[in-house]
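G., the chain you wanted modeled:
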Amino acid sequence: MDAMKRQHSEGGRLPEGIWLALDTSTASMTAALAREGRAFAERDSTSERNHSIRLMPEVDSLLAEANLEPGRLAAIAVGRGPGSYTGIRIGVTVAKMMAWSLGSPLYAVSSLEALAYGAVLRGKAGEPAKGGTWIVPLMDARRGKAYTGLYAFGTDGWRALAEDGIRPVAEWLDELADRLTAGGAAANGGQPDGGIASSGRSAGDADASVDGRRTGECQAGDQPQGGSTAGAARVLFAGDYAGFRELLDGFAARIPAEVALVDDPLTASAVAALAWMHGERCRVDDPHNLIPNYTQLSEPEKKLAAKHAALKP
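Predicted structure as tokens:
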């Protein structure tokens, strides 16, 4: 039984039928139709500046190809970021408006987790084995930083070992290397050492709920966690790693685990799989309440905040 089937039992009964899955948080605009978390039709494009123009035509084309009216969609799943500030808004807005206008249930997952889980779907993470594989998604956030997280894939399923966030890559790799070489999770209650478990989000991030209602904040860490997080036999970096290649080479030279790099794009098939895996934990109670996970302020917001700070006495 695969990780998706193992963990789906915690999600409750989900809408049966065809789901639409979307993500526009990266340069890859991706949309898919899926049944029970398994995509059977998918469209991908890497023209980031055209997400707002191309997304709805691609969705219409997918539906027409499947001979499916929008009103027959059982649910909609979307990646809520982090990633491109403008890109995230496009996918989330389309998903919210479709869910609201069609009366369809809406599910939201981490785009970073989808980037990581794609390696499992495509077999790049290998078979679940003793020791397991750590998967580290990377999206370049500039200035030596990346949107990143830490996930484990092994015989005990799929788990989050650290919250998604934005981190200086050099410091993040140091933390991971220390964790792998020390192997001290058992003495630390089975949790990752030091700062690995801490959130990388900035203080200005939006809350995960509105008036106590869920807004789509959902990761593998929300699932029951079993087994040890003491280390890995293999570490796989997935996504936009080109700008950090020298740091990754240095990391590989100082750890006892095998290191692999995968630059496959984020796919809607992974979004669909995660939404089905996490189940009702990722359902958004009201589409209007879905808040994109920007993780950090946009450049205009940073400049405005700095301007206001300079004006304070």
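The chain has two domains: 3-111+266-304, 126-203+220-262.

Shout if anything looks off.
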